[in-house]
Write a structure and sequence with these properties.
Shape of chain A: globular
Structural class of chain A: mainly alpha
Strand order of the largest sheet of chain A: 1-2
Number of helices of chain B: 15
CATH superfamily of the largest domain in chain A: MetI-like
Structural class of chain B: alpha+beta
CATH architecture of the largest domain in chain A: Orthogonal Bundle
Low-confidence stretches of chain A: none
Mean pLDDT of chain A: 83
Family (chain B): Belongs to the binding-protein-dependent transport system permease family.
Radius of gyration of chain A: 26 Å
Strand content of chain B: 5-15%
Shape of chain B: elongated
Number of domains of chain A: 2
Subcellular location (chain B): Cell membrane
Largest sheet of chain B: 6 strands, antiparallel
Number of domains of chain B: 3
Number of strands of chain B: 8
Pfam family, one (chain B): BPD_transp_1
Oligomer: heterodimer
Radius of gyration of chain B: 30 Å
CATH superfamily of the largest domain in chain B: MetI-like
Organism (chain B): Microvirga terricola
Main location (chain B): membrane
Low-confidence stretches of chain B: none
CATH topology of the largest domain in chain B: MetI-like fold
Helix content of chain B: 55-70%
Distance between the termini of chain B: 50 Å
CATH class of the largest domain in chain A: Mainly Alpha
Chain lengths: 340, 350
């Protein structure tokens, strides 16, 4: 780190810490008292306590409750007023005459959302990973104002999903910019968000737009870690660019790429915010995704069905745990190879 | 001439243009257009008047009627370009419109009112920023309140996150105690448990704690971030234990060691976490959407969504407020880009 950035970081930590300084000093007396009681060895648990307390209340307990609720029925909110129904909620969700036809399922919206999500995940992950890879390769080249170009691709990552959804809703609306450009070239206006296939297309496009910079950055870090002399050696041997990519770049980038693929997968399965603001799940249920289904079943409908929503989120959680294991395997492999 | 073109087209490598260079710059150009275009368009649109906004095809720049002060009239009058019968054009100010006829007056030379059919006149317009789009929603609607709520949530959540996460990270990196591995395992396991999976029971817990529809109900569930604990712990592991032992020799209390020695040394990691926390909390949507039900409690994101979901979307307000909501994030990005990119590259968190 350069001297400039060190002063910057000190200034930053000063801004963050200054209001806390007083608080931290004031806390010393009670903490000394506690230390006298528990001894130095016991302080580990004391320091851990606040975080674990909040963590238990708002993460661990909810996971346990979710499990319990998915086996209960009724409209009541409180657990005491609900009755045990065994696997009934799961049965409702999973009963289907033909799994490829959501309309034949008992809970057809759930299956429609699964179909939509699977389609979304397959297309979005493929496109996003490819586009991020190309962007990282381009940004890794020697060129002027690299920082600027990196910022161009990265900036949308910082925008909130609501803002992303609103910006594109504004561009895609009936009298929006895109239709104006089309009319200018003599083409017809299209109601982009009111036609099933286009709505899905834009849901995918917008989510790629919003997250591209993030993954390109991770891949860029991976590319920069590849030793330069490998490329110099390849150049001396007169290796063609494509072969260099195939034989040097891709194998050495593969661990990073694997991490990116699993991260994109995990996040694509949970797609909600941008799509919800952009299309609201419509037209009809053509862009209804699983998270939105859970949200609407549990909260938005007048007859909130918490049991069904819990069961659906348990199923989604199962899928995500599987994907997370995949991710951990990928990153542990990356670490192993990084050390080797 | 040739020298100039070689200078302009010279690249760092020297040896002229390779086809991959052409493709790269093409990719960058398309990227610039697609990634920045929408944001520029948003910013331009946010300064348009409602009438200018609904125009089709839309104008590039925000345009509004040119006004002129005419003697004898209290308010400035809009100017129009009028086609006269003899084919010449002149600029007149419109006093009022009656049916299909407009009563107009020459702004420079007030004489009698001229009656002009409205299809013979076209408005004179100039680039003008409709700043009312920004001031009105803050005054008439609850947007100022939404901003305050968002700032409160972001600041409180970030401070608490930094304190409790760094305490936990300190414990997990510098103490030996029973169950340490178990705790670390649990934190790692939940690193990826998404909010969307536990949103139903979380709602019940928050409800039970009487935090429903309060800003604390938005803040508290988010502060014990496993990612933050993990990031800080990894950093604190690099702080030498000898420093801590030396401080103990000097009779420093454990708490003093934590905030006088370990925290300052972990400042770079804390800065990264602070930036991320600010971005996360400022942009949160699903959880505030569920917890907050009264309009006075809305955060900016929930307010924006509600405002744009209304039957009659007042786009001129929505766009202006969207731009305002981006500004803090843009400022952070401009000044702290280095931390954000290095943070992402080293941890893969977001």
């Amino acid at each position: 780190m350069s001297v400039a950035s060190e002063t910057q970081s000190q200034a930053l930590s000063g801004v963050v810490a200054a209001p806390l300084h007083f608080l931290m000093g004031a806390l010393n007396a009670p903490m000394v008292f506690i230390q006298k009681r528990f001894g130095i060895g016991g302080m580990g648990a004391v320091f851990l306590a606040p975080n674990m307390l909040i963590f238990s209340i708002f993460v661990l307990v909810p996971v346990a409750i979710n499990f319990a609720y998915s086996f209960s029925g009724g409209m009541a909110i409180f657990f005491g007023e609900r009755h045990f129904v065994g696997f009934e909620q799961y049965q409702t969700l999973l009963t289907c005459a033909d799994y490829t036809q959501p309309a034949t399922c008992r809970e057809d919206a759930f299956w429609q959302s699964i179909h939509n999500t699977v389609f979304f995940v397959v297309v979005q992950v493929t496109v996003l990973v490819l586009v991020a890879l190309v962007t990282a390769l381009v940004l890794n080249r020697e060129m002027r104002s690299r920082g600027f170009w990196r910022a161009v691709f990265f900036f949308p990552v910082l925008l909130s999903p609501v803002v992303v959804g609103l910006i594109w809703k504004w561009i895609l609306q009936r009298d929006g910019l895109l239709n104006a450009i089309l009319v200018e070239y003599g083409l017809e206006r299209t109601l982009w968000l009111a036609e099933r296939n286009w709505a899905m297309f834009w849901a995918i496009f917008v989510s790629v737009w919003a997250h591209l910079g993030f993954y390109a950055l991770i891949l860029l870090a991976g590319l920069q870690a590849i030793p330069r002399d490998l490329y110099e050696a390849a150049m001396m041997d007169g290796t063609r660019a494509f072969r260099t990519f195939w034989r040097i770049t891709l194998p050495l980038l593969w661990p990073n790429l694997l991490v990116v693929i699993t991260l994109v997968l995990i996040r694509a399965v949970q797609i909600f915010d941008e799509a919800y603001v952009l299309t609201g799940g419509g037209p009809g249920t053509s862009t209804l995704f699983i998270t939105q289904y859970i949200y609407e079943t549990g909260f938005a409908h007048v007859l909130r069905n918490l049991g069904l929503a819990s069961a659906a989120s348990m199923l989604m959680g199962l899928v995500l745990v599987g994907l997370t294991l995949l991710q951990l395997m990928a990153s542990s492999r990356r670490n192993r190879e990084g050390r080797a | 001439m040739n020298a100039i073109s070689t200078f302009l087209l010279r690249r760092r490598g020297g040896k002229g243009w390779h086809w991959t260079d052409v493709l790269s710059y093409l990719w960058l150009a398309i990227g610039l257009f697609l990634m920045f275009g929408p944001i520029v368009w948003l910013a331009l649109s946010s300064f348009k008047t409602p009438a200018n906004l609904v125009e089709f095809p839309p104008t590039m720049l925000p345009l509004d009627a040119r006004l002129a002060n005419v003697q004898g009239y209290d308010k400035p009058l809009p100017l129009y370009r009028v086609k006269q019968d003899d084919g010449t054009e002149r600029v007149l100010a419109q006093v009022r419109r009656v049916g299909l006829m407009a009563q107009m007056v020459d702004p420079a030379n007030q004489g009698e009112l001229v009656r002009v059919p409205i299809d013979k006149r076209s408005p004179e317009r100039e680039v003008k920023l409709a700043t009312g789009n920004y001031t009105e929603p803050l005054q008439q609607f609850n947007f100022l309140r939404y901003f305050q709520n968002s700032i409160f949530v972001t600041v409180m959540a970030t401070i608490i996150t930094l304190i409790v996460n760094s305490m936990a990270a300190f414990a997990l990196s510098k103490y030996e105690f029973k169950g340490r591995t178990a705790v670390l395992g649990i934190i790692l396991a939940t690193l990826m448990v998404p909010l969307s999976v536990i949103v139903v029971p979380l709602y019940l817990v928050v409800n039970e704690m009487r935090l429903f529809d309060t800003l604390w109900g938005v803040i508290l569930p988010t502060v014990a971030t496993p990612t933050g604990v993990f990031l800080l712990r990894q950093y604190m592991l690099t702080i030498p234990d000898e420093l801590i032992d030396a401080a103990r020799m000097d009779k420093a209390s454990e708490w003093q060691i934590y905030w006088r020695i370990v925290l300052p040394l972990a400042a770079p990691a804390l800065a990264v976490l602070a930036i991320f926390s600010i971005m996360w909390r400022w942009n949160d949507f699903l959880w505030p959407l569920i917890v907050l039900s009264r309009k006075e409690q809305y955060t900016l994101q929930v307010g924006l969504n509600a405002f744009s979901g209304e039957l009659n979307v007042q786009w001129h307000y929505v766009l202006a407020m969207t731009v305002l909501s981006i500004l803090p994030v843009a400022a952070i990005f401009l000044f702290l880009q280095r931390y954000i990119t290095s943070g992402i590259a080293s941890t893969g968190l977001k």
